[in-house]
Write a structure and sequence with these properties.
There is one protein chain. The protein has 320 residues and is mainly beta. It contains three helices and 20 strands. The strands form five sheets. A seven-stranded mixed barrel has the order 1-13-12-18-15-14-20. It has a four-stranded antiparallel beta sheet with strand order 5-11-10-9. The protein has a three-stranded antiparallel beta sheet with strand order 4-3-19, with no helix packed on it. The two termini are 23 Å apart.
Amino acid sequence: MITAACDPAPFTTSSNDKWTVSALYTYPIKSCQPTSLSSSLVSETGLLYDRLWMLTDAKSGRFVTQRQEPQLALIKVSIDTKSSTLELSAPSMSTTLQLPLHPQPGVDLGEQYKVRVWYDDVYGRCCGEAAQAWLTTFVGKPIRLLYKDSAETRLVSRYLPDDETCHLPPQSGFADVFPFHIIADTSLDHVNQHVPLPLTHHHFRPNIVLSATNSDAPPYDEETWKRIEFDSPEDKTWSMFVTSRTPRCTMPNVDLNTGTMRTDGEPIKSLRKFRCTDPGKPTYVCFGMQATPQHAGQVIRLGQAVTVRERGFHSLTQPL
């Protein structure tokens, strides 16, 4: 079993500390398809538009993801900044659904609803009858689409970096926890050597994918990171704090081509053999790292150089 290094050590920069942003993904609607980006402003809640919309069960009020409705993996989400619209399409739907990219309360948005997202109460506003009808038809049961209420702040309360160095209190929209999820290509390559089916970035739904500039960089090196620094030619360099491992649910088991849950339990079944690596939650399958930015307003882009500045120990001692 490969495990992350646990003991902090005096830090010196080495060749393994140099990485590059190789992919950026935003997920406007939680649990639907990602939109690939070449660059994005870093907002208080992550990449632009990331998980600002979410489906809920219109009867129970609970949030809906691919765990319950794997066919959500087939909903394509397109961002058109020129027309300021978000367009949804799906193979079984004869029409598309267009939504305002910047919906306004009282105009595009209706009643406020409180939804429990894991351990947090999050507030959203209804996106209207047209969205409800389109999604209800696709999913096959009554669905309500919510937009994160901008008047309500959802602060993250667990695994927080030092207030003196992280100037932006961690917060998120409808993401599970932190505003950013990072994976490393070296780790995905290693995973693919030990699972029976090829996995892509999309099985793990990262916002940021990093590629090592050193071909000898070890897999799961990111599990020792505490702070990484992004080079920025037009601004000062800026940091992101790596806060915890990401426990995996069953969503990687969704066949992204058919929108169905695999019946053989893969790849989680295989991952359980070598990715239960967190000392605080040794039964959790983990892959990827949660992260939060030092501040907002800067730009992240493909090809951006990233340097590991601090390393340390991670342990899931609280619910994530």
